[in-house]
Amino acid sequence: MDGMTILIVDDEATTAEMFSLMLENEGYRTVVVHGTGTAIRAIQQHRPTLVLVDVMMSGLSGLELCRYIRREPDLSDLPIVIASAMSQPEDVQAGMDAGANVYLMKPISKADLLEGLEAALGPGAEETR
């Protein structure tokens, strides 16, 4: 995991910190932000390897962040994993349509989180869990 930085975007501080601890224990570096506006600045500043984002946030949603990333030529191939409590088929489809590589449904175990990251980092992987 050397050199891999995961940007965690979740407005629930407890959830974001839990994901951060899980990933740091596996050797990832993490950057935690609590909104999509700060996420855009963090992407530009830290150039993460992957973005882990919640859907429901105040201000712009995680789906809007996904669409922004996919529209930007220098970011369009940045892997995105959605981690959301929204679990209806139409929610998952909306996440994938917005540009997510992987859609994980909360609550998420450490094993599922790591598998989701690996799938997103793989060549052209798209997956729902």
3D architecture notes:
- The chain is of the alpha/beta class and 129 residues long.
- The chain has one domain: Rossmann fold.
- The protein contains five helices and six strands.
- The protein has helices spanning 13-24, 36-46, 62-71, 89-98, 110-121, and strands spanning 5-9, 29-33, 50-53, 80-84, 102-105, 127-128.
- The chain has a six-stranded parallel β-sheet, sandwiched between helices.
- The radius of gyration is 13 Å and the shape is globular.
- The chain starts with a strand and ends with a strand.
- The model has no long low-confidence stretch (mean pLDDT 93).
What fraction, in percent, of the residue positions are helical?
A: 40-55%
Q: What is the CATH class?
A: Alpha Beta
Mean pLDDT: 93
Determine the CATH topology.
Answer: Rossmann fold
Total of domains: 1
Instruction: Please give the alpha-carbon distance between the first and last residues.
Output: 22 Å
Order of helices and strands: EHEHEHEHEHE
Number of H- or I-type helical stretches: 5
Question: What is the molecular shape?
Answer: globular
Radius of gyration, CA atoms, in whole angstroms: 13 Å
Low-confidence stretches: none
The description of the largest β-sheet is:
6 strands, parallel
Name of the CATH homologous superfamily: Response regulator
Percentage beta strand: 15-25%
Secondary-structure content class:
alpha/beta
